[in-house]
Design goal:
The structure is a homodimer.
Chain A: E1 6-11, H1 14-25, E2 31-36, H2 39-50, E3 54-59, H3 68-77, E4 81-87, E5 89-90, E6 95-96, H4 99-106, E7 111-115, E8 134-138, E9 149-154, H5 156-164, H6 174-181, H7 194-210, H8 212-233, E10 248-252, H9 259-270, E11 275-276, E12 285-289, H10 296-312, H11 321-336
Parallel strand pairs in A: 2-3, 2-4, 4-7, 7-8
Antiparallel strand pairs in A: 1-9, 5-6, 8-9, 10-12, 11-12
Helix pairs in contact in A: 3-4, 8-10, 8-11, 9-10, 10-11
């Protein structure tokens, strides 16, 4: 997370650790901003409301940028606003939000809290340099482990706020977690998800051996390969150019084809697993994840499966153009910087 | 769990699912009973207080039985009490509480909520026959999977209560969980701990092939072996006879020996992992877990490591007597009913 802040680990999905951050930071009725441009941002609105917070949603259309001007204006207009929340990588659309700009818009007096579930390890994230008070991440995306672990980094001033926060909590209580972490034998207060921690240890060693910036670059290249493939097929990208560094590529499905049907076909015919959209985009887009242990050949194979399926459905003008474009994009990327298909250390 | 009730699965430690049950069942200020005789019971007192409940603790000394008479008297004296909580297997001492008697003492109008983290799969548990409204279990004990999954069974009348419960919740919200479970493709509302679910599936197949009652019997035999070994060494059991069907055997350490030191020696010299006590018993007892995939030879090896270590410390009169007694106990148990060292299906 590129931070010197306290870092806590929880046995839960990332949604649990995010709930924990709300419980540990806020009091009932507290006024916060959630800037949204997709399904995950809206989840945090819903969660804040479930905990009795006074949530001001600054909504932007799905697939577009966050409205940082409106965030700044809202903060300036209302000194009662204590915190501002947004998603780093909004995987419902593939947009990677500019959290540095978001934090600047929120200003010096408002706590920033970032959902970096799928951003962490895949997209540039500089917690301390960008002044992000609380960042919540998950293990199952770019960190390459199975789901069930989540992380929270907490700045000193967030910890200050925590001391006055009145929402009830226990399982996710940061005091319990920090006490256990700082004890003679560092531990978690409740039973830890041991197998996942062991896997995380191995994954982090791989990432450190590769280098974090190299890992970010690897994800950028995979995105280029995926987008080139999608455009080679002749499909429209949902979010370009907001997805340059996104670990998920989203494309509109051709008219008359149901996204869910297409996804099922890829799985049944080729054992390739991609997903349809969510919310109002459910049947309109497909989403291809390419983070963590997904390598360039996986992406190219996915493009091939998509081409072959669309060809079988009779809606593809030039089968083969997608993979050709994908391979060409990879070759071009490798010209400037060699991109190992998987982290080098995993080959050892 | 021997129930027809709704069963929900959560990506968390068992403590998280227990917190979820409190959030889903109660409203701030609600009056509940927690009957305690060890560290885990006291955890639920602390948790209830953290959520603003009016908790009446009916405490018994650690290592003794729950005081069911006092539970019944408290319920009769105070109609404001809405729920009664206790631990099934109190692993801090090894006592297995009689939850059937507890539920009867709580009476027909009070909701019962049972922590069966280490009881589930190891000790007789008849959720429906005994009228247990909510039972919370974990995967990492007798169900043999790594930690990180927890379960809640919820009776119809507990669900009724849930509809009026006002404590804030989101991650553990039963409505979200049930909606997702009942959708066309059964799922969890948030990212599930996939690898653990796959492992659980395999473990449950093994348990079903063995038969649940056979598994309970297997745990009883392991307890006999462990207790025979401890007594053969000449150590005092903490809780006899309350541990007849316990998946954890607790023994007092000899005077002048520190429990933590003894535990460390076993691990460093023999790679055998047992634990010291908790709370006020921390340095007075050792605890040997024998549930799930732990088999009779593991228990005998543990007794051997304990004997050898105590011998090296110069406090053992007759090295070898412990394992002799343990093997004799196993032979006697096998005389009446063959006890496979591990579930039969795992040998396939």
């Amino acid at each position: 997370m590129q931070t010197e802040n306290e870092l806590l680990v929880f046995a839960s999905s990332m949604t649990g650790a995010f709930e924990g951050a709300m419980q540990n930071l806020f009091s009932p009725g507290e006024r916060i901003i959630v800037a949204t441009n997709g399904a995950f941002g809206q989840r945090w609105v819903e969660m804040g409301q479930a905990f009795g917070l006074d949530v001001l949603e600054v909504a932007s259309p799905w697939g577009s940028d966050l409205d940082c001007d409106r965030v700044a204006a809202a903060v300036n207009a209302d000194p009662a606003i204590t915190a501002a929340i947004c998603v780093h990588c909004e995987t419902s659309t593939g947009v990677v939000n500019n959290v540095q700009e978001f934090a600047a818009a929120a200003g010096a007096d408002v706590l920033t809290m970032i959902d970096s579930a799928s951003g962490l390890g895949a997209c540039e994230l500089r917690t301390d340099a960008w002044g992000l008070d609380v960042v919540i991440g998950g293990g199952q995306k770019a960190l390459m482990i199975p789901p069930g672990l989540a992380f929270a980094s907490i700045s000193p001033r967030a910890w200050q706020r925590h001391c006055d926060a009145k929402l009830p909590r226990y399982y996710f209580d940061w005091d319990h977690a920090l006490d256990a972490l700082k004890s003679d034998i560092p531990r978690t207060p409740w039973t830890p998800a041991i197998s996942l921690l062991v896997q995380l240890d191995a994954a982090l060693r791989m990432l450190l051996a590769e280098g974090l910036e190299a890992a970010w670059h690897r994800h950028i290249v995979l995105g280029r390969v995926a987008r080139a493939g999608i455009q080679g097929i002749g499909l429209d990208l949902l979010t370009q150019p907001r997805d340059e560094n996104s670990p998920v590529t989203t494309a509109r499905v051709p008219l008359g084809i149901d996204a869910d049907y297409l996804v099922r076909q890829l799985y049944e015919r080729y054992s390739v697993q991609i997903v349809a959209g969510s919310g109002h985009l459910t049947d309109k887009i497909i989403r291809i994840g390419h983070c963590g242990y997904v390598d360039a050949l996986d992406v190219i194979a996915t493009i091939a499966a998509l081409e072959l399926t669309l060809d079988e459905l009779g809606v593809l003008p030039r089968p083969g153009a997608g993979v050709a474009a994908a391979v060409a994009a990879l070759a071009m990327a490798r010209g400037s910087a060699a991109v190992p298909p998987v982290p080098a250390s995993s080959l050892a």
